[in-house]
Amino acid sequence: xxxPDQVFWLLVIAAAVASVxxxxxQEEIFREPREYFAEHSKHATSFLFRKxxxxxxxxxxxxxxxxxxxxxxxxxxxxxxxWRGYLLSFFVTAWTANQIMSLYRRLRVVIKLDNAIAEKELxxx
Length: 125
What we know:
Elements: H1 3-26, H2 31-43, H3 47-55, H4 59-74, H5 83-124
């Protein structure tokens, strides 16, 4: 696969990883499981269970597991056609997905701020 094709697929897969990781760790539809995991990430007696529960509430951590899933189903590799391509694609895809989530978080903050300013201006007039 050519480098431009690899970059295209990297962005597509990273966007899918970001979407899944964000939805599960941030959106209302998964609030109850997230609250369960958040509670157990603080108070579970088992170290491994605490870390597993924390991973389910952290978009950065969870994105790595989602990346593994997507790389497994797509077979996507970067630059090399062997295990090095998988290793490289794992880190670059997770990093790219986290950059997408960071941009999305910033965009949401700006939109909420704009809405608050607009609502304040409507109330004043």
